[in-house]
User: Fold these one by one.
Assistant:
Number 1:
Amino acid sequence: MNLFRNNADFKLDVLREVGNIGAGNAATALSTLLNKPVDMAVPTVNLLPFEEIAERVGGSEAVVIAIFLRVEGDAPGNMFFIINREPARRILQGLLGFNAAENDEYSELELSALNEIGNILAGSYLSSLADFTGLRMSPTVPSLAVDMAGAILSYGLLQFGTMGDDALLIDTTFLEGQQEAEGHFFLIPDPESFEKLFRALGVPF
Amino acid sequence: MTEGTLIKVGMADLNIAEGGAVLKTTGLGSCVGLTLFDPDLRIGGMAHIMLPSSDIAREGQLNIAKYADTAVPELVNRLRSRGAAAHRLIAKMAGGAQMFAFMGGTDTMRIGPRNVEATKVELERFSIRLVSEDTGGNYGRTVELYSHNGIFLIRSVQHGVKEI
C-alpha cells in the first residue's frame, strides 16, 4: 500500500497502539462482565494475503462464533470479535450460570448473550479509540454468525478486495488466565481510513 | 495428474483439473464458487469469485480471478486451451450467501446476490448452461468438483454434505 511507503515502521507502531488502546478497554469490559481477570497479548498489525487471515483463527473451514459490525463515522471499517466454541461455552457458563451448548446447538438466549457481549466489547473498543483519536466512530448493530471462518471473514475484506489481494489487519488476542487464546478482536479499517487515522494522530506522511 | 489429486483454489483464484483430480475451495461466504465441466473430455475448472465487476477495481495489477466479469472468460479460455468446447461446458455453482443479515439496503451487504447475478450474466454471454446451483442463504460453504464425473459436492456447517 502506498500509504506505507514512508515511515512504515512508525505507522505500524501507531496502529499497534490503536489496537492496544481499543482492545485494552474491551478486555477490561470483558473482565468486569465475567468478574475474572482477562489478559490480552500485544496486538499484531500485518498486511496479510486474504487466504492467511482465516489462518489466524484456525483456518478457512474452522467453525467459529463471530460477531461482526461495521464501524461508521470518520474512519469506517469492519470489526469482528471471534471466539471458538469451547471458550464461548465457558463465557456463557460464567455469565448465565448454567451449562450451555453441550452440542453445537445454541439457544436463542445463548446467541443473544454472545451478541450482547460482542456489542459491549466493540463499543468499549471504539469509544476508547474515538477518545484517543478525536474521530467520530460508532458501531452499527452487531450481527452474529456461527460458521466457517473463511466465509465469515471474507465479508470484512470486500473493501480491500477492489485494491488488491491483501488486507491490513489489527489483531488482538484475549487470554483468560493461562488459557489458550480466548478470542480475537479484528479491526480492519477501510483502505481510505488509514490516512484519517494517521492525520488524527499527527503521524507525518 | 493422478486420480484424486486435490487442487486447492484460494480466495479470488481459479484453476482447472483433469485426469480425475479434484478442485476444492473452502469457506465461501458471499463469494461464488463457479465450476465449468466438459463431460466429453472430463476436464473441469473452478473459480472463487469475490466481487461482481472489475469496473470497481482500483488495484494496479488486476487479479482477473476475483471478478465475475473477468474470471468467467478466463476460465473458459483456460478450458478451451486444453481442448474443451464452450458449447459442451456445463456450469454448477454455489455460494453468494448473505452471512450477516442486517441493515438491509447497502450494496456491500447485498454482495452475495450480486455476485450470483453477475456470474449468471457472464454464463449467458458465453451461452453456457447452468445445470444446478446452491446459492443464497446465510451460511458458508466448501465445494469440490470431481473432474472425472463432474460431480459437485457442497459442505456446510448447518446442512452437512450435498451433491448437485
Number 2:
Amino acid sequence: MEREIRSNRILTLPAIIVVALVTQIPILLTLYYSMRRWIIVRPDLTRDFVGLAHYKELFTSSEFWIVFKNTLTLTISSLAACLVIGIALAFLLYRPFPGVGIARTLLISPFFIMDSVIGVFWRNVIMEPTYGLIGRVFKLIGLQVPEVLSQYPLFVVSLLVVWKWAPFFLLVTIAGLQSIPEEVIEASLIDGTSTLGRVFRVMLPMIMKYITISLILGLIFILKTFGLIFTTTLGGPGFASTNFPYYVYRTSFLGWNIGKGSAIAVILVIISLAILMTTFRLLRKSIVEENI
Amino acid sequence: MRNYVSMLIRIIVFVVALIYFFPVLWMILSGFKNEVDVVNPSLFFEPTLAQYRLIFSGRITHYFSNSIIITASATLLAMLLGVPASYGIVMMARLRKSGENLFFWFISTIILPEVCVVIPIFVIFNTLNILDTHLGLILVYTGVNTPIVIWMMRSFFKDIPIELIEASRIDGASETTTFFKIVFPLSRHGLSATILLLVIFIWNEFFFALSLTYYNAATISIHMATYMTQEGLFWAKMSAISTLAILPPIILGWFNQKQLIRGLTMGAIKG
C-alpha cells in the first residue's frame, strides 16, 4: 500500500510543481511587493520597505471604498439577474418541443464569446450614441439619445456580465430539471398541485444542488470580471465602474505603482479566500457526494 | 385551452431567444457589409466578402496563428500534467485522506483571481526576457488550467469501478498498461469534455494575454481590444474579425452542450 501511494504521488508531482510555480509563489511575492515602495516610472525613489503603509493608504482613500462598493454591486446584482433569467428560461426550455434545440443553442451562444469581442461590439455597434443601434432607435422615437457608457457605466458592465453568464445558469438548471424523475412530476400532477405549486414546492427544491453549484461558480467567475470592463468603460468615468481586478490592473499597469497594486491584489486574495471558506463546505459537499 | 397556452409559451421562448441572440446575429451580418452600409441598420443589403478578403490579406492572421499555437500547446501541456495527477489523486484518495486534501489545494488555486498573481509573473518574465513570447503565455496558461483538468477528470476517474483496475493488476498488467488499456478508454468522454473546455477558456482568455504580451505573442482576444479606440470606426471589418474569433468556441460549444454541462460545473454535476 505504501508503495502504491508513493507511485501515485509521483504522478501528481509535475502538476504540483508547475501549479505552485505559476500560482503560489507569485502570491507570496505579491505579498512581499505590497510592503515595498515601488513605482516603476519613478526610478529615483528607492524600493524601501514601507510595512503596511499601502494598506493604510488604501483603507483611508475614498476610491478604495468606491471600488469595494462597485465590486459588491456588480457581483451581487449580476448574480441575482443571472439566477432569475437562467432559471426562468430553463423552466421554459427543459421539456422537448419542436425547435427547442435551436432556441437553446441561440440562448447559450453568448457564453462562448470572448470578453473583448462582447465589449467592443456592444460599445461601438450597439451603444455608440450617433450611429449605434441605441442611438438610431432613440432618434426614431424622438427621444434624447443617452450616453449610456458615461451615464450608467456600472449598469452597462453588469448587463454584459449577465448576457454572458445567464446562459451558464440556464445550462446547469436545465440539467437539473432533466434529472428529476418523471414519476415525481406525475405524482404531483395526480395530486392536483397547481403549476406554480409544482414549480416552487416540488421542482425547485429538487434542483437546489444544481442552483448552488451554478451560484458558487458564477460568483467565482463574476468576481474576476475584467475584460468586459477593459473593453467598454475602462473603469470610468472616474472610478464609477472599477472593480477590484480592474483596480489592480489600473494601479500597477497604468499607474505603474507596483507596491500599491500588490496591496490591492493581496486584499482581493483575502476576500476570495473568505468567499472560498464560506462556500467551501457547500462546494465540498456537492462535489464529494456526487462522485462517491 | 392548454394547447393555446403552450403554443403561446413556445412563441415567447423563440422571441426571447432571438432577442438574446440578436447582437451575435447583427455581428455576423455586419461582417458581410461594406463600411458604408454598416451604420445603416437594415437587414437587407448586398452581401460582400470584402471584409474577409481584407482580413486574410492583412496582419490579422498573425493574431489568429498566435491564438492557435498558444491554445493548442497550453491545452496539450495542461492535459499531460493534469490527467496523471488527477488519476494519482483518485487512486491515493481511495487509500488515504491526504489525496482529497491535495485535490482541494488544486481547487483553491482556481478560485484566486488572476490579478493576484500577475504582477510577480510580469516582473519575473521581464527579468527572464520572456515577456511577449509564446513560451511565457503557454507556461502561465498551463499553470492556471492544470487544476481545472484535475478537477474535471477526477469525476470521470471516480466513475471507473475499482474492480476493473484490480482485475487488471491481478492479471499481471503493469500500472502503465492498466492506465492505457482500462482507464483511458473508459474516460475518453471526460478527456474530450476537458479538452473542449480548455480550448474555449484559453482561446477566450484576456487578462494574462493583455498583461504579458504586446505584439509578437498577442492573441486575437487582445487584438480585438484595439477596436475600442483607433480602429473602432471600421465596424464592418471589426464585425468580420469578431465573427472569425468567436467561431471556434461557439461551434465547439454548440455541438457539445451535454458534455459541457458536466465540464462547466467541473464534474460536480453529471449532465
